[in-house]
Write a structure and sequence with these properties.
It is a single chain. The chain is of the alpha/beta class. Strands 2-1-3-4-5-6 form a six-stranded parallel beta sheet, sandwiched between helices. Helix 5 links the parallel strand 5 and strand 6. Helix 3 runs parallel beside helix 4, helix 8 crosses helix 10 and helix 9 packs across helix 10.
């Protein structure tokens, strides 16, 4: 079994390497600290399982997984993260991760079971994922029900306080089109100003707190 590890916290990365090599007796194909290096390694050394942190430098885990699953649909990816906000966990399931482990709350026994389940081609999601999914399903005003995928993508930039002109080249839309989306998003969410939109985006995980550091 070939395993790739992408994790920017060195101590945690070393622990994962130890776990894979000594507990499971599998091969660590590579272990790197950022998404760009991880993408290069995955393309050069295809793996059976990828242990992937979400908050990593260069290319974040969600974007990296999206690319890898498109290129190699058979890859089995287990997310390891302390990011348990609504948007992150919604995207983890939507993108096609086979599992999620909460780095802050789950114990080592959970991590071992999750790795084994994913290696067997099954899914293993921490309890927090199920709670968030149930909440999003039961809430008639959840962003998953009232915002389109494009609007959710734009909310990442709108919630960060970027202007229409700043967002335009990032999403290949004219500023006027972004302004139209901005109005529609505010209306759908029953918000009335950019500061309210920013607070909403922060609370749901579309943007990160300024105090949140990579690897958290």
């Amino acid at each position: 079994m070939q395993v790739g590890i992408i994790e920017d916290q060195q101590l945690f990365r070393e622990m994962l390497c130890d776990l894979v090599a000594k507990h499971f007796r599998w091969q660590v194909a590579f272990e790197v600290a950022d998404g760009l290096a991880g993408l290069k390694e995955c393309r050069a050394k295809p793996v059976d399982i990828l242990l992937l942190d979400i908050m990593i430098p260069q290319i974040d885990g969600l974007s990296l997984a999206t690319t890898l699953i498109k290129e190699t649909p058979q890859i089995r990816i287990l997310a390891l993260s302390a990011q348990c906000d609504d948007y992150t966990l919604h995207r983890v399931v939507e993108i096609g991760f086979l599992g999620f482990v909460d780095k802050n709350r789950d114990k080592s026994a959970v991590l071992k079971e999750a790795i084994l389940r994913v290696a067997e081609g099954h899914t293993y999601f921490a309890e927090v994922v199920r709670r968030v999914q149930n909440r999003l399903i039961s809430d008639p005003k959840s962003f998953t029900k009232i915002l389109t995928d494009r609007e959710q993508e734009l909310l990442i930039f709108l919630g960060a306080g970027l202007s229409n002109e700043e967002i335009s080249p990032r999403v290949n839309l004219k500023p006027s089109a972004i302004q139209s989306h901005r109005r529609n998003i505010l209306k759908k969410l029953d918000l009335h100003s950019t500061p309210e939109l920013m607070r909403y985006s922060l609370s749901k995980g579309f943007i990160r707190s300024p105090t949140t550091q990579p690897g958290d």
